[in-house]
């Protein structure tokens, strides 16, 4: 069994005031939009699909794409399916140009 220092998100708080301060800090970051659920993906060139791997993706997740360059902005018919543990598939047109999207994982 891992000790408290090596377990993810299992801090030991002996001071209740410190716990409240940490929770308030985390909640303020969330209110400022700092939810740590974003990333960037470049569509695979000369292909009709791109696999997006992200540890936050699950079978009930929603991935929202936002074009981050002009070529991505012109991409029509993009959709996402095949959601699984830490992965999903983006379907798109085949092109030899680089098309980059920013994304957010929800759920």
- The strand line-up of the biggest sheet is 1-6-3
Total of DSSP H or I helical runs spanning 4+ residues: 2
The tally of strands reads 6
Low-confidence stretches: 1-5
Largest sheet: 3 strands, antiparallel
Distance between the termini: 29 Å
Order of helices and strands: HEEEHEEE
Number of domains: 2
User: Structural class of the secondary structure composition?
Assistant: alpha+beta
Anisotropy-based shape: elongated
Radius of gyration: 19 Å
Mean pLDDT: 88
Helical fraction = 10-25%
Structure, explained:
With 107 residues, the protein is an alpha+beta fold. Helix content is 19%, strand content 32%. The chain has helices at residues 16-31, 70-73; strands spanning 38-42, 49-53, 62-67, 79-84, 87-91, 100-106. It is elongated, with a radius of gyration of 19 Å.
Short note summarizing the structure:
With 107 residues, the chain is an alpha+beta fold. It is built from two helices and six strands, in the order αβββαβββ.
What are the main properties of this structure?
three-stranded antiparallel beta sheet, alpha+beta
Give the helix/strand layout.
Layout: H1 16-31, E1 38-42, E2 49-53, E3 62-67, H2 70-73, E4 79-84, E5 87-91, E6 100-106
Antiparallel strand pairs: 1-6, 2-5, 3-6, 4-5
